[in-house]
């Protein structure tokens, strides 16, 4: 059994919040037009790592509040779109610096509301801030073109202009980075925003709103509407005539619903949805590096990332060595417990529903012949949301875990014989967000990279995310790209201007 650590009661959420270096980061009200909006309707933010520990009571804004925020964002857009790219670059640079200046406090907020270990949370804050740095550099580099016309008396000009008010809908698993990846691009383009964070993790979003004020953002450019009326807020944002673009990260089921709501108004839309990432270890791979990559890819944040490896395919000739080394590495290094215990490497799942899905997938696999090589069950001695990191061997394609995203700390390992067989199996899914494979054969690297039907691929690495990466998927994993030089495109329109009689 993996060693684990109990949460020290002296680290209660209230005490952690009271001890922050910058207590102004703790906001429990909505943020509209530069003002903090309190409501009688509240919802509780729970600490998933400690049973019964509440982090905060947060104002649940109404649809009327959201309507007002959208109207203000539209009014301010008519001013903000006329600002210079250099001005917007300065705003983003200021916000990047403020996030890094407050990184430890921001990381603690993430630990309390999300549950991930402090080191992971600190990494998320730095990753989140990097999008502000990236888009601060991109903002001045958005160019149009002059195109030769078939008519020699004409010239065709293309202008890049901001799309308008952007509705941003974000999940709980990266409560800071999922906002900054969208917000950075929107601001760089000259858009204003209305952000609806996940009700499980609103504190990180509200802290960003505070820092945006400190960074000098004009009132009404960044509006945050925390609410536990999630479905109603989503419908308002997708159908409101003053919103021109929606960006959503979440499940494919919800994404499909939002897309249907949005269709009558034909808004610009980008979606990063569910995944079922294959992780392939070929017979010529460096097994130790593949083990390291599997741990990073599969078990980061206890398997609660959209690009987590969901299916591990290992060539039959190296299957025994790989599974033995992976199991031993986890036994030697993993510490399960609360994220503010320094020795802890992996924390709890977010809530009861996540626990149920993990348990269901394990039970189904075992009932159909899978072997539990490590872990396998909940850890109620640590708390209601803790589950052991688990490795399943002898997994076959008739098991639910092969076809459904687990979003939890379970690694199902499947044997394969040939490259053709494993590529076909990897592509046998409705999803196509990320994929990974390990091989020393350069010809195979290019061949398999082209054949895998995913939006992103890690070759000989389990860590792919950074601001420079065009992040996004294909098939039911969504469309559009975030981050990178392409990320700003979804927040802009291309306007064509034909100048006549220029000769």
From TrEMBL:
Family membership noted in the UniProt record: Belongs to the aldehyde dehydrogenase family.
Identification of the protein by name: Succinate-semialdehyde dehydrogenase
Active site annotation, chain numbering: 272
Source species of the chain: Scheffersomyces spartinae
Entry annotated with the keyword Oxidoreductase: yes
Stored InterPro entries: Ald_DH/histidinol_DH, Ald_DH_C, Ald_DH_CS_CYS, Ald_DH_CS_GLU, Ald_DH_N, Aldehyde_DH_dom, Aldehyde_DH_Superfamily, Succ_semiAld_DH
Catalyzed reaction equations: succinate semialdehyde + NADP(+) + H2O = succinate + NADPH + 2 H(+); succinate semialdehyde + NAD(+) + H2O = succinate + NADH + 2 H(+)
PROSITE patterns in UniProt: ALDEHYDE_DEHYDR_CYS, ALDEHYDE_DEHYDR_GLU
The keyword Oxidoreductase is annotated on this UniProt entry: yes
Keywords: Oxidoreductase
Pfam family, one: Aldedh
GO cellular component: cytoplasm
Molecular functions (GO terms): succinate-semialdehyde dehydrogenase (NAD+) activity
Sequence ranges assigned to domain Aldehyde dehydrogenase in this UniProt record: 36-497
SUPFAM superfamilies, alphabetized: ALDH-like
